[in-house]
Amino acid sequence: MVTETVQVDAVAVQVDTSTSTLKEIVDRARIAELPLNSRDAARLTTLVVGPSFFTFDAIAQKNFYIAERYKLQFRVEVFNPFNRVELGDPEVNASNSNFGRIRTSNPNYTPRSIQLGFRLDF
Asked: Does residue 40 belong to any structural domain of this protein?
């Protein structure tokens, strides 16, 4: 059995929450030096990790040969076959009563859809 004791003698840095001015922890020069590609540094504080986005589509096809010269192809395409709902981002406005709640679906979400098709090659 191995036991180890670590003692840390230090004072934690206190963050001044009484004002919104930038102090010693984050200074304006360091923010100005960030490689933001002309994006607004203040918007970095509103970045939110939302739910993941997952898509799954399925295609099945069957070829039927008619004589030597003709081929009939039947296709079934199913988009979002499990009808999984994709949620949007949570509300980030702290003054909103829905703060932190997800009230929308992802704009890229599409409900289940099925497409049937025939193709005749000759």
From this structure: no
